[in-house]
Amino acid sequence: MCGIAGLLNLSDGGVVDHDLLETMTDTLAHRGPDGRGTWYGDGVGFGHRRLAIVDPEGGAQPWVDEGGRGILTYNGELYNQRYLRKQLETEGIRFRSTCDTEVVSQALLHWGIDRALDKFRGMFAFGLWEIGPRRLTIARDIMGVKPLYWAMRNGAVRFGSEIKTILADPTFPREPDLTTLVNYFAHYRLSFDGRTLFRHIKEVQPGTYLTWEGRRRSEKKYWSLPLIPEADKKDPGEEVVAEKMRNHLVRAVKRRLMADVPVGAYLSGGVDSAILTTIMKAIIGSNFHTFSIGFGEEGGNEFKYSSMMAKALGVKHEQVTLTEEGYFKEFESLIHVKDTPLSVPNEVPLRYLSRFIKRKVSVVLSGEGADEVFAGYTQLVRSPHDAWLADRLQNEGSTFSDQDRARLTASLTNLYGDSAFAGHKAQFMHLYQWVPKQQRDKWFHPRLPLQNVESEITSSWDRQWSALDDAGLDPYEKVLHILQEVHLKALLLRLDATSMAEGVEGRVPYTDRNLVEWANALPIKYKLRWRDASAQEKAATLTSAESAGQLDINKYALRLAFAGTIPDEILLRPKTAFPVPLDTWLYGKRFDWLKERVLTPRMGELFDLKVLEAELLSVRGKQEGMKLWMLANVGIWLEMYFSGSNVS
Fold first, then answer.
1. Which of 139, 441, 446, 564 is most buried by its number of CB atoms within 10 A?
2. For 553-608, where are the alpha helices, taking DSSP H only?
């Protein structure tokens, strides 16, 4: 795992700024403490910082092809590199190292970009310079496990693993992107349609590559999650599903154990990490470390369950407790690591845990992706049920009793502000947000073009939803599709930032391409189902908030495949969010800290401070602390990155 950077001058006979590239490369030292390299050619330069995981002696980068065809700067792991190496050798390619970097280089140069990317199974971001055609290609893996950013400035292309590589140029313009910022509050995402929170810096989207040949730029989406209507899916039966689930996951874990350094795992106490560590033990025995973190406050950790699982496995388990003081001590430095506000509160403890993990291992397996692929978010994935209920309430022929009709109308209104929706999308979008539009409109300064911004966000969702409608997807599969294509990349960015900040490589078996594509073709009942016919009947008069996790079973295929292997107390646990006690802290002794970071002149250039002050003083509801936490994030970020410039 590494950090990459690059510059390309698009002018004929142009040169690259060597000092700038050296600085860009050095901003990524935390991602690659084991090695540093730069390469310069005719109008192009690549930088690399290395975290040595495979072939520590032979994998230095940037990688220069011996045949003079190209140069590669690469961040990631190619898990099927041995298979591809054999394929390439049968086609006459000879290798000088055992590292996957050379396999990536040879595959791209020998097979071409499209064919190679279709064969790759792994996580990666890379820049490839082909000398003959003078062509630059930058690409990112299908799920977005590894980040990659780019920008244009003064006739030069810049790219890097982190936003800070581009901001290494002190003359680079710094302006917040208002649409992306509003979207952050709406959907806690740090990018919007390839745009970042910095107006002039873009994100290479997952499963996408960009190419520059001369001044001509092209962009191609080389992989998307297949759109398969429920009617076209075949039911192989529970025995076959359970067997294939085990086989896919064992293969995914085995691939991610490829390393010449120690490998460990997160063990939260939930079913996802329990399954991964169980498979790890079956493959390599119990001589590996597992890790969990939590808070000392009541309900602030899941140590009971992580300890139970570690004991069942007989592995070395470390539990780390983070205090309130420790959380706020780490908070602002992590914003600087990410160059953005944080997306979820548990990033702080995960970064702290990574520092602890580094003492033991350099690679850690993590459970991201299981919730998105197998319907782990209880109420959210069950929420189409509410749209169905609302339709029935509006149908005069429905058979609700007067009592049930009145109660359901009240329950839906309490959840959504109404008991009728203009379709499934309207229902889902209301639930899939943190700060409602009406509240966002009040927060921001009235002189800002918020109507245009909200229109952009709405149009983007309309396009995405129309594609799902056109494909004829089941309402539940629509939700899962959005979670995998939109939601997941924010969590993967969280993992990358918090682990690589301390030189630890996070690997995610549940994002394995073969597993994801197989699971996507399964009928919805293998992801989410009612417990039985009586439960479904009972749910007909209950909302998703009342029935999800009580009357249904999510992650059904996962639980089915590992029944009898994982202790039932863990296997059957409903999903539990990482408990960060924001409400207790921000409404308590951290309130002054909060005000100092929200009510600032810098925030006043974008927000109505009187409205925000009233918000701080009035908000006291459960989970409302998340909104205040997001405001504090933005206040810190604006001060950190836009001090001395006008942010509006």
1. 139
2. 556-561, 568-571, 582-586, 591-598, 601-604
